TrEMBL record:
It comes from Stenotrophomonas maltophilia (Pseudomonas maltophilia). The lineage of its organism: Bacteria, Pseudomonadati, Pseudomonadota, Gammaproteobacteria, Lysobacterales. The gene is barA_2. It comes from the Bacteria. The modification 4-aspartylphosphate is found at D8. SUPFAM superfamilies: CheY-like (SSF52172), Histidine-containing phosphotransfer domain, HPT domain (SSF47226). This is Signal transduction histidine-protein kinase BarA.
């Protein structure tokens, strides 16, 4: 059992997306990162659609890899599976431990990034609401994917959970309400 898979996109006997599909049959919740020398964004988007959390471009630095691994582990469905044991109201708005882990313990960076995150959140909320209203799944998926990554970095635990729920059930009225409530709690 592995906590995370790091898979090369181009394998001698196939490709990374095919391998991930086979691995997902055994372990559907293990987060996966793809790595490639190809910087083509359409390839990266296709890999995300195939189930990779992120695509890393080689050559790859140690810090870049470490941050991507932390992000993937914080945002993984496996990490989310521990949450349902607590009612949503009991999940705190901020998870300082997760945020500081994602930012190598840099509290000053966390404060600055949270200010930026909160300043951008109303626009992101509006884009998500519009995509939900228009049933625009590609835009909604893109907005939620970016927001989920930001929630992981910021330690926005309640919003992160609400984003995951909305991503999995965009037509769900409770998921939509949970998203709105989590955003409102941060913007109070």
């Amino acid at each position: 059992m592995h906590d995370l898979w790091l898979i090369d996109v181009n394998l001698p006997d196939g490709n990374g997306a095919q391998l991930l599909a086979k691995l997902r049959q055994l372990r559907p919740d293990t987060p996966a990162l793809a790595h490639t020398a190809d910087g083509d964004m359409s390839l990266h988007n296709g890999l995300r659609d195939a189930g990779f959390s992120d695509t890393l471009v080689k050559p790859l630095g140690r810090d870049q890899l470490l941050k991507a691994v932390r992000r993937a582990l914080v945002n993984s469905p496996g990490a989310a599976s521990a949450e349902p044991s607590r009612p949503p109201a009991e999940i705190g708005d901020w998870d300082e431990t997760a945020a500081l882990a994602a930012l190598n313990g840099q509290h000053n960076h966390l404060i600055a990034l949270r200010e930026l995150f909160l300043a951008e959140l109303p626009g992101v909320r509006d884009a998500v609401e519009q995509a939900v209203g228009l049933h625009d799944e590609p835009t909604l998926g893109s907005q939620l994917h970016r927001l989920q990554a930001s929630c992981g970095f910021m330690g926005a635990a309640r919003l992160g959970r609400a984003v995951r729920q909305l991503h999995h059930a965009p037509e769900s009225v409770p998921a939509q309400a949970g998203f709105r409530a989590a955003v409102a709690a941060l913007l109070h």
